[in-house]
Structures are given as C-alpha cells and as structure tokens.
C-alpha cells in the first residue's frame, strides 16, 4: 500500500489503481511534452517522470502517440461535454455561447498550442498518425454541433444548412485566430473571436433571407 492509500485508510481496487496509474502517466506526459516537444519526448522519460517502469506505461498505453492523443482528445473531450451541457442549459444567446465554448476549450497555454501544431506537422509527415488526428478533430466538431444547431434554430437558419459544416468552419476560424493572436495579441482580442462568429451567422441569416434563385 502506498502513502496515498494509507492516508485514505483503504486499499484501492484494481480498477482504481489502474485509473490512478493512467492519470499519473498522462500528467507526466503533459509535463514532458511541454518541455521537450512531441518529437523530443521519449516514453522512457515519461515513465520515469511518473515514477513507473516502461512496462507499466505500455500496459496502459500503446506508446507515445496514444499518450499524446489521450491528452489532446480524451481529457479535453470530457471537459468539453460538461461545458456543452452547461451552455445548453443556460439558454443564453447561442452565438455568444458558442464563442464562450470555443474560448473555454481552446487552450490558453502557449506550450500546448505549439505542441498541437507540432503534432499536426508530425501527422502530415507520418500518414499512420493522420487517422488518429482525423478522429480527434471529428470528435471536436461533433461536440460543437449541438451548440451550433441551437444557434441556427434560434436565428431561423434553414435546416438544409449543415450544422456540421458550420461547426467545421467555426472551429477552423477560431483556431486560425488563436494562432494569429499568439503572433499579434493586440489585434486579436477575445472580442474579435466572438465578432467573427457573429459575422459568420449574420451571413447565414442573410443567405437564408434571400429569395430562391437569387
């Protein structure tokens, strides 16, 4: 029994112990990736940082790529689902809610932003990683569709307009602005991120209001 278990006065179940090991490995991976970058980090260093053997790491994760994707997608996905539920229940202005969701789930951590860009380059150069990155990005977009659909319904945008397409454009616009903000924060404020979405939805409303064939 380790010190944590003794302090809690109970022995962890097998499932609890495995979950704790995974979380510690993910925490160590986050620190190591931030310090070394994706290419520079090694599974040996991650395992050592977490206080486990390399065998323990491989019994929980398939390798460095799986660790990274769990950090980028798994943890973020759980946080995003909770935020989506909170925003939908609040019944606020849907475009403002979408802007809030994107800003809250978009990492303000410059190291993490750089790491995401680095992994994108890695996936472009290593096709075996692209499928995993595609699945991660689709999960992000699918999570936004509920909020986008609510915004479209509130604004009277026809059902024929694809909410998935609008979510894809919204995410791409947001990510592009976040990168630009890192370069020139004076010109890319939080308000500009929200304004960009207002322009997008205003354009959708204007298109919906045009007579057929115009």
Topology summary:
Blueprint: H1 3-8, H2 14-40, H3 43-50, H4 54-60, H5 64-90, H6 94-105, H7 110-125, H8 127-154, H9 163-183, H10 190-209
Report on the structure:
- The protein has 214 residues and is an all-alpha fold.
- It folds into two domains: 62 residues, Arc Repressor Mutant, subunit A, CATH 1.10.10.60; 151 residues, Tetracycline Repressor, domain 2 (Orthogonal Bundle), CATH 1.10.357.
- Helix content is 80%, strand content 0%.
- The longest helix has 28 residues.
- The mean pLDDT is 81.
The tally of beta strands, per DSSP, is 0
Our estimate of the beta-strand percent is under 5%
Mean pLDDT: 81
**Kindly, what is the distance between the CA atoms of the first and last residues, rounded to a whole number of angstroms?**
73 Å
CATH architecture of the largest domain: Orthogonal Bundle
H/E element order: HHHHHHHHHH
CATH class call of the largest domain: Mainly Alpha
- Derived structural class: mainly alpha
What profile does the largest beta sheet have?
none
Structural domain count? 2
Number of discrete helical segments: 10
Q: What percent of residues adopt helix (DSSP H or I)?
A: over 70%
Q: Tell me, briefly, the overall form.
A: elongated
User: Which ranges are low-confidence, i.e. pLDDT below 50, for 5 or more consecutive residues?
Assistant: none
Would you give the CATH topology of the largest domain? Answer: Tetracycline Repressor, domain 2
Based on CA atoms alone, the radius of gyration comes out at: 21 Å
Summary keywords:
single chain; 214 residues; mainly alpha; Arc Repressor Mutant, subunit A; Tetracycline Repressor, domain 2; 2 domains; 10 helices
């Amino acid at each position: 029994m380790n010190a944590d278990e003794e302090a809690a006065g109970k022995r962890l179940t097998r499932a609890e112990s495995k979950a704790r090991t995974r979380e510690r490995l993910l925490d160590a991976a986050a620190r190591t990736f931030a310090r070394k970058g994706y290419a520079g980090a090694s599974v040996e260093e991650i395992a050592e940082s977490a206080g486990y053997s390399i065998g323990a790491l491989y019994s929980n994760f398939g390798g460095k790529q799986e660790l990274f994707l769990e950090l980028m997608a798994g943890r973020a996905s759980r946080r995003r689902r909770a935020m989506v539920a909170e925003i939908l229940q609040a019944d606020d202005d849907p475009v403002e809610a979408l802007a809030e969701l994107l800003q809250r789930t978009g990492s303000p951590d410059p190291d993490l932003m750089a790491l995401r860009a680095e992994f994108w380059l890695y996936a472009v150069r290593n096709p075996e990683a692209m499928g995993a990155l595609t699945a991660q990005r689709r999960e992000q977009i699918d999570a936004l569709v509920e909020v986008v659909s609510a915004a479209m319904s509130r604004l009277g945008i026809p059902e024929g307009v694809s909410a998935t397409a609008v979510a894809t454009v919204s995410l791409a616009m947001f990510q592009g602005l976040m990168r630009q903000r890192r370069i020139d924060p004076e010109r890319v404020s939080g308000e500009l991120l929200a304004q960009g979405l207002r322009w997008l939805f205003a354009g959708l409303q204007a298109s919906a209001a045009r007579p057929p064939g115009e």
